[in-house]
Design brief:
Elements: H1 4-26, E1 29-34, H2 42-58, E2 61-69, H3 82-85, H4 89-100, E3 107-108, E4 112-115, H5 121-134, E5 139-143, H6 157-165, E6 170-173, E7 185-189, H7 197-210, E8 213-219, H8 224-228, E9 232-235, E10 238-241, H9 242-247, H10 250-266, E11 271-276, H11 282-293, E12 297-302, H12 310-322, E13 327-331
Parallel strand pairs: 1-2, 1-5, 2-3, 2-4, 5-6, 7-8, 7-12, 8-11, 12-13
Antiparallel strand pairs: 6-13, 9-10
Length: 332
Amino acid sequence: MLSQLDCTEKCIYRTTKLFHRRCKMAKKFKIAWAMNPFDEDENVFLRSIELLKLLNKKKEIIVVPTFVLSPETLKWAGDLPKKDLQHFAPQALSKMEHWTKKLKNIHHSLPHIIFNTKVSTTRDVKAINHFAIKNSVDLILCANHTRSDLSRMFLGSFTESLLMVSKVPLLIVPNRKEKITSLGNVAFPVDLINNQSASFKKLGDFVSTFGSKLTLLHKIPTPIDPLLQNSSYLMGGGWISVGEFFKLDIGQRKQRLNKLKEKMASYGVKAKVELLSDPGSIAESVQNYKEAKRINLIALNTSAKTKTTYFLGSVARAITKEVDCPIWIFHT
C-alpha cells in the first residue's frame, strides 16, 4: 500500500508532467526556479520574486519551482537513502509553496523535488540541468549567496557548479537587501576577438523583449595584465598574445566596438559603447561601471568553444562574485 507521501509525490509528478505538456503546446517562456527552501536568508527569495515579476511584465512566463533534495542541500556529511530524504520532503514542499504563493499573477506549476542520494554538488547540478533540458526549460533562475566582501571569495557551491556545467541559460540573482526594481539598463562585456553573430542575435532578442537599453563594454587591459596571465590576456573567452595586445590601440578598439554597435543596430537594437580604462580587474571595472551608470543587469555569453575554458572558470565567476545585480549567462 502506498504511503500518503508516495501518493503526494505521484500526484505532483503527474500534475507537473501535464503542466509541462501544456506549456510546450502554448510555447510560453519557462523558467525553472532552482530554490533551496531550507535557506534561512529571505532576501534570496524576495529578490528572486521581484526579478520574476519584472520578467513577467514584458513577457508571459511560467515558473517551475524546483529543488534538489540531497545530503548536500541538507548539509549532511554522508549519503542518504531516498526513504530518509523523503522524510524532509513535506517540509520542503511546504516552504516552496509558501514562496510560490507570492508569485501573484504569474503562471507557475506545483513545486517539484528531485532526489539525489549521494553527497555530490556536481550530481545535484547535473540533476537540475537534466530536468531543465528534459522539460524544455528556457532559463534556470538561481541565487548568488555572496553576502560580504569576505564571502565574495565564495559564490556558493551549487550556483558555481551550475555555472560550470549548465547547458541551459542561467539568470543569477544577487543576495542583497536592496529591491530589484528594473531591467531597464543592460551591459554586455565584449572581448573584440570572439564575437559570434548568434550571441548578438540572442542579446538583441532579450533587449528588445524587455525594452532595455544596451551598453557594450570593453575593458582596456593594462600593460601588466598580459605578463600576469602567462603572456596572454583573457576577456570573454578570447586569448590575446602580448604582440596583439600592443597592436590593438585605443583607436582600433573603438573602431571594432562601433562595428559591434552597427551589428546590434541590424537587429533593431540601439546600443552605446563604453571603453573601461580604470585600473583593476575586469570584474572590478564592471562593478564600478554598474554603480556609476546604474546598470540593472549584466549579460555574459559563453560559446561551445569557450564553455570549458578559463573564461567560464574565472572571468564569469569573478564578475558574478563581484557584481551585485542580476547576471544573465547565455550560450551560443
